[in-house]
Amino acid sequence: MDSNTSRAKRTPLQPLRSAGRQRVEELLAAASDLMAERGYEATTMAEIAARAGAKIGSLYRFFPNKEAVADALVQRHIAILEDEYAALAKRAATLSPEALADILIELLVTLHPRVKSLSALMEARTDKMEIRDRARGHAVAGIAAALRVCTPGLDEALAKDIAAVVLNTMKVLRGMLANDAPTTSGAPDELRRMNRLYLSDRLAPFRRGSDSATDGKTR
């Protein structure tokens, strides 16, 4: 039986001690790096253990197979997205639309190193559409929540529409910076400016007490 692809009967072990939790983090970080570099199918359990500086038995102690590793990574990535967008929503009340635009446009770039294997996992797994929908759903909901905190009068449906536009702009910026999208040296700054103008224009009619925003004036 192929240990990389078969589903074992036992579930992943949840470590109780800090040393065990640290080992799991190291193993997942190694798996994320490898899957981002080589893809899910090409990554083996032996390579994950080697990259983490662990014995193969230590990896199997926590994860019965590669699919269990992938499941844990998906859950981890989704949790990171939820935490980041929740933190942003808490800050949004003190931000101007322009400042919020700057933070949002950079967020996917700064998040990417922490969720780098998510794209590889989505491409390889049979439930990739479910994973993609979950990730996108969390992103749109998180951005929309921040927009509504920044602009309390904003309708929920419109907030989600604006959030979807902003999310795609975030993806374009990441593609530009990674040279995966057509770009020039000044294009990323132009995209940032476009995002500021867009959010400022769309949120202005709904702003209450916009002069009270305490940081992030337009550059």
UniProtKB/TrEMBL annotation:
<protein>
    <submittedName>
        <fullName>TetR/AcrR family transcriptional regulator</fullName>
    </submittedName>
</protein>
<dbReference type="GO" id="GO:0003700">
    <property type="term" value="F:DNA-binding transcription factor activity"/>
</dbReference>
<keyword id="KW-0804">Transcription</keyword>
<keyword id="KW-0614">Plasmid</keyword>
<keyword id="KW-0238">DNA-binding</keyword>
<dbReference type="InterPro" id="IPR050109">
    <property type="entry name" value="HTH-type_TetR-like_transc_reg"/>
</dbReference>
<dbReference type="Pfam" id="PF00440">
    <property type="entry name" value="TetR_N"/>
</dbReference>
<dbReference type="InterPro" id="IPR009057">
    <property type="entry name" value="Homeodomain-like_sf"/>
</dbReference>
<dbReference type="InterPro" id="IPR001647">
    <property type="entry name" value="HTH_TetR"/>
</dbReference>
<keyword id="KW-0805">Transcription regulation</keyword>
<feature type="domain" description="HTH tetR-type">
    <location>
        <begin position="21"/>
        <end position="81"/>
    </location>
</feature>
<feature type="DNA-binding region" description="H-T-H motif">
    <location>
        <begin position="44"/>
        <end position="63"/>
    </location>
</feature>
<dbReference type="GO" id="GO:0000976">
    <property type="term" value="F:transcription cis-regulatory region binding"/>
</dbReference>
